[in-house]
Specification:
This protein is mainly alpha-helical. The protein has 13 helices and 2 strands; from the N terminus they run ββααααααααααααα. A two-stranded antiparallel sheet has the order 1-2. A hairpin with a 2-residue loop joins β1 and β2. α10 packs across α13.
Length: 268
């Protein structure tokens, strides 16, 4: 597995010579079988691919996902670490996370980017917030288009560490973002910092853009709404509001002043 500099500071993985057309077909078949619900067969097929091609990041990554679905957390973590380790080992000495680009558009970069993202999520869920921030920060740096949405996860990491100023800096950098993880989180950070008037103004903008999110945060009960299309979230819909509450609701619940400001804005 090699990472090569295709242009100045623009890097891409080269396909491993052991990845034959037959291997790619087997991998696609394994994913199709997994999507149809046969975890056991998909697992065996992916294990066979890894045995034949130990550097197959995508096979290791998807094995990790299967194990995680089955609650086999230790095996999931081992596979995730192995997948990421292959990619990190391929980084040459001159590669810099601060200046390099590893763009999603280059298809061969996606397996590593997916696996590294998955490791960041694992760290977040296991309260290893500094490690998660490091990974998500790196992903955002090398792929500024952020096809994986890590800019929406970072505020959650900083709320866990109570690093409110970092949330403000981050959210203002993405002021044109249309998702609640950015502008609702900025309003909450302002309220938690005691900057009530700024928080009120921010919340007025939030409620004008995505009113259902504000209403969801104020509910006492949060039944999961039916999704119009399984696997997709409707922008501005009740499903988006529900998922924001599920991810960020407890930070709002920890600030009665923020909730009171939100009540006033929603009521008005």
């Amino acid at each position: 597995m090699k990472l090569v500099e295709m242009e100045k500071n623009n890097w891409g993985f080269e396909e491993d010579s052991t990845f034959t057309h037959e291997i790619f077909e087997k991998f696609d078949q394994a994913l199709d079988i997994w999507e149809k619900g046969d975890d056991e067969v998909a697992e065996k097929m992916l294990q066979a691919i890894v045995a034949e091609c130990p550097n197959h990041i995508d096979a290791l990554h998807h094995l990790s996902l299967i194990y995680r679905e089955q609650g086999r957390e230790t095996e999931a973590y081992i596979c995730c670490q192995a997948a990421v380790g292959i990619g990190l080992h391929a980084l040459p000495q001159k590669f810099s996370w601060k200046t390099a680009r590893m763009e999603w558009l280059w298809l061969e970069n996606r397996p590593f980017l997916r696996a590294y993202h998955s490791l960041g999520v694992w760290n977040l869920h296991n309260a290893r917030y500094d490690d998660a921030i490091k990974i998500f920060g790196r992903l955002l740096s090398v792929n500024p288009n952020d096809n994986q949405g890590v800019r929406h996860i970072l505020p959650k990491c900083w709320f866990e560490k109570n690093e409110l100023s970092r949330i403000l800096t981050h959210c203002r950098k993405y002021a044109d973002d249309v998702f609640p993880e950015i502008f609702y989180s900025e309003a909450l950070a302002l309220a938690c910092l005691g900057r009530s008037e700024e928080a009120r103004e921010a919340l007025e903008d939030c409620v004008a853009k995505l009113p259902l999110v504000g209403r969801e945060l104020l509910k006492k009960r949060h039944p999961r709404p039916k999704s119009k299309m399984e696997g997709y979230i409707t922008h501005g819909g009740p499903d988006q509001a529900y998922y924001y509450w599920k991810s960020f609701g407890r930070y709002w619940s920890g600030s009665e002043s923020a909730l009171e400001l939100l009540r006033q804005v929603v009521k008005r």
